Amino acid sequence: MAFRKAFLFLFLVLSAGASSPAWAQSPQTRDHAKAVADLKASLAKDPRSKPLRSALSAALSEWGNSLYESGNRKQALPKYLEAVESDPENGPAWFMLGDLSYLELSDFGKAEYYWNKAMPLAPPEIRRAIVDRISRGRADQALERRYQSLETPNFVVRYGEGFDPAEARRIGTYLEERYAVLAEELRTQASRLTVIIYADGSFGRLSGGHDEILGLYDGRIRMPASQVKGPYEKVILSHELAHAFLQHRFGGGLPVWIQEGYAQSKEPERPYNPAETEALQKLAEGTLWTPIPYLDRRFSKPVSADQASEAYLEARMAVRYLLENSPQGEFVVFLERLSRGEPVDKAFGASFPKLDWDQFSHGRGLGKIPD
Q1: Residues sharing a CB contact under 8 Å with residue 130, sequence separation 6 or more, in sequence order
Q2: In what order do the strands lie in the sheet with 221-224?
Q3: Integer Cα distance of 236 and 214 in angstroms
Q4: pLDDT tens digit sequence for 131-174
Q5: Distance, CA of 131 to CA of 144 (rounded, Å)
Q6: SS3 18
């Protein structure tokens, strides 16, 4: 999705999402270490048993998924490697090895090798996702061949020739500050993130030439060098980092209004233009409010740029209201329930017992217009 510069961000996850897709997920209700140990003990007695090898591989994948989703992604890597060693037909494990090599290690060659191993084992929709990943990985490899890297505790900042390393260090420092805020609020430590600062022509090719797209997150945070030290620099970085945390903590299944509303709520404050101020007033009055269950449609199929802008404003107001009413972490509980597939009204009622879903859904009583 692309919008005018008042709402400048493209939230683009690689087709199946930056967290493990449904194809690679599995129930996470058992003791993984014990399950693997029990299967290895059985396999020691019958080392040629293909069913036991498949079961061991699946258990190792399940363990890897659990580590991946909890943010321990580098610890997940050896679990997936052991899984494909036990059963080379474990397509989801090959797939996740590709994602880890690409997103965590920036090892494009190895990522493509793993994704190609997954390709013939995958259902059609995942094959399409793999093709997209390989295409993006090849483009990144070509663009970043001569890039330099600067590392901070939680980030790798990559930049091209001619970019000032001091600016990369400053960006890394700012991101660490924002990381601490998000980690406390969402009660998680996101895995290490890569941030790419592109020469403007390179970023234009990446974003399809859309001038209104000034930043994006697709498992890596990306922005053009022209925005560094500009008025939108911190807005872009804060917004995309918030997307990264939501993906890391809750996967890709959250409603778009929550993803975009939360990302906006973490931006530095900025003045609203007259059209936005008028829209905010109407939202506060309820005359422009879209009931929450239908709000995602305004993002996926807006009939105009104004409607898209209004959807962003409403999402920002709604999420801010929920954050203001979360003294005991109710917002995080709400997102956890949504990530498990609970209907939004049920998750809301269980997470915010002092709030009324119908009132909230229709924008009544949300308080003052955001400053």
Answers
A1: 95, 98, 115, 116, 118, 119, 122
A2: 9-11, 215-217, 221-224, 193-198, 155-159, 148-151
A3: 7
A4: 999 998 898 888 888 899 999 999 999 998 889 999 999 999 99
A5: 20
A6: coil
pLDDT on residue 305: 83
Asked if 175 and 215 touch (Cβ cutoff 8 Å), the reply is no
Question: DSSP per residue over 183-238, as a string?
Answer: HHHHT--PPPEEEEEE-HHHHHHHTTT-TT--EEESSSEEEEGGGTTSTTHHHHHH
As given in the structure block, the two tokens for residue 255 are 């409603």
Largest Cα separation within the chain, whole Å, is 74
- DSSP per residue, 120-161: GGS-HHHHHHHHHHHHHHHHHHHHTTT-EEEE-SSEEEEE-T
Residue 6 identity: A
How many whole angstroms from its chain centre is CA 327? 25
Length in residues, the chain = 371
d(CA 187, CA 331): 11
